[in-house]
Amino acid sequence: MVKLLIGEKGSGKTKKLLDAVNTALAQSKGHVVCVEKDDLLRYQVSYRVRLLAAANYGISGYEAFYGFLSGLCAGDHDITDILVDATLKIGGKDFDEFAKFIEKTARLSELTGTVFTFTVSTAKENLPQGIFNICEIE
Predict the structure, then answer these.
(1) 49: nearest Cα among 75, 27, 74, 65
(2) pLDDT digits (tens, 9 = 90+) for 50-68
(3) Is beta strand 115-121 parallel, antiparallel or unpaired with respect to 79-84?
(4) What span, in angstroms and rounded, lies between the C-alpha atoms of 84 and 100?
(5) Each residue of 20-58: pLDDT tens digit?
(6) Which DSSP category does 123 fall into?
(7) Looking at the whole model, is its pTM more than 0.85?
């Protein structure tokens, strides 16, 4: 399952993501991972959540980002949830590439049973309509 938290900058997406992290942690029988662009959420996320800063790994663009997420799932079969803040800052603002990334991530979710949640800083109408058939919108 892929979930999207969509809204303009300042609309409370990160707060919702942090709430989702805490909910996932309470419900998970495995591991919860939170990915962000930089190292900003360090003091807001429980020490039991694996917090990763994409910038520390040189991730840029959706191909590298997908490879990173795939590697996380391949390396730890106990990951139940991966939550990502600032998705467009990590992958880029090409919405067609974003849609392809979401399609691939949905297949990865089905394969691994991992729930992916992404914050997306844009208006809903800017996104390709096809992704709304794939994702749950929060």
Answers:
(1) 27
(2) 999 999 999 989 999 999 9
(3) parallel
(4) 17
(5) 999 999 999 999 999 999 988 888 888 999 999 999 999
(6) -
(7) yes
